[in-house]
UniProtKB/TrEMBL annotation:
Pfam families: DUF2927. Keywords: Signal. This is DUF2927 family protein. Residues 36-52 have a biased composition (Pro residues). It comes from Salipiger aestuarii. It comes from the Bacteria. The keyword Signal applies.
């Protein structure tokens, strides 16, 4: 939770063939057949009515202004980096293991208790064991041009996550189990009913989160286990505020979808990483990709404890970083 593609459209071009008319030397110079009357001028097609502009409330405009100022302030401080880390952010296999334990095993919030912070203890591995089928939805007040931009961005990111994890993750038009909802402040009355429709047995305390989100909550994701009390995910819903400027909105997508895959916590020691509330990095980093590889290693199973998974992750971390 953040507080604080290439997609090619192919257009078919229809070419109209022009037939040339030729006169024949064998045709008679005179004929008694009267020529067909020339058609009169055609009436131009009336223009299609312009779509009704979507009205935007003052509350939504205020959020746009606020988040634009937040992004500008962070960029002015050299934050929201998009380079994925570099020579100034080295990390070792020991650091990678430590960060994995804090981010994949601890939980930011207590399970089933809304936004109540957890006690920070290490829990169990949470991940998807079935294919992840992602769908993208927009509230009625999200502008059309933004829908195109955001759809392309999510598709590109999902393709990247599938390559990184080796797990079947794809965007689908139906039968989805991971829903990415872009919603405006003006769509908030439809948010809770939509979530209830997607997950009918949703915990009421989880649903209450969406009733009145404070603006400090930029975006969030809720993942649901296949079985009550289990650790293998079966459904997830990420909510992204449409009022964010482009980079903050993309940052939300990167963090919330990755958290919905099982990297559910933040750590102040994780660097370079988006799983750190300091906002230094806006987009998934090289270390974050490694965390996902570790989580989706076939030997790592949902429900494993820290003691069970630690030897596996220690070995794989050393392999990823050459034992540094």
């Amino acid at each position: 939770m953040r507080a604080g593609l290439r997609h090619i459209a192919l257009c078919a071009l229809a070419l109209a063939g022009l037939a040339a008319c030729e006169t024949s030397s064998l045709a008679p110079r005179e004929t008694t057949v009267p020529p067909h009357a020339r058609p009169g001028p055609t009436e131009p097609e009336p223009p299609a009515p312009a779509p009704e502009p979507r009205s935007q409330s003052l509350a939504s405009r205020d959020l746009e202004t606020y988040y634009a100022r937040v992004q500008a302030d962070l960029l002015a401080q050299g934050l929201l980096r998009t380079d994925g880390g570099g020579p100034d952010t080295p990390f070792t296999d020991t650091m990678l293991l430590r960060n994995f334990e804090r981010i994949a095993l601890a939980e930011e919030y207590e399970r089933g208790a809304g936004l109540r912070p957890s006690d920070g203890k290490l829990g169990k591995i949470k991940k998807w064991e079935q294919p992840v089928r992602v769908t993208i939805e927009f509230g009625d007040h999200v502008p059309d041009d933004q829908r195109t931009t955001d759809s392309n961005m999510v598709i590109q990111y999902i393709n990247r996550l599938a390559r990184v994890t080796g797990h079947p993750i794809s965007v689908t038009g139906g039968g989805a189990n991971f829903h990415v909802l872009f919603m405006s402040e003006d769509d908030k009355d439809t948010l809770a009913p939509r979530i209830r429709a997607l997950v009918p047995d949703v915990n009421p305390s989880a649903l209450e989160i969406f009733d009145d989100l404070p603006r400090s909550i930029h975006c969030l994701v809720i993942a649901f286990s296949e079985q009550r009390g289990g650790y293998a995910y079966g459904d997830a819903i990420a909510v992204i505020r449409s009022e964010h400027p482009d980079l903050l909105r993309q940052s939300c997508v990167h963090e919330e979808i990755a958290q919905g895959l099982g990297l559910g916590n933040d750590s102040p020691n994780a660097r370079p990483s988006i799983f750190n509330d300091d906002d230094e990095f806006a987009l998934l980093t090289t270390q974050d990709e490694m965390l996902l590889r570790l989580l989706y290693d076939p030997a790592v199973v949902a429900g494993m404890t820290a003691d069970q998974v630690r030897p596996i992750v220690r070995q794989r971390a050393a392999e990823l970083l050459g034992g540094t």
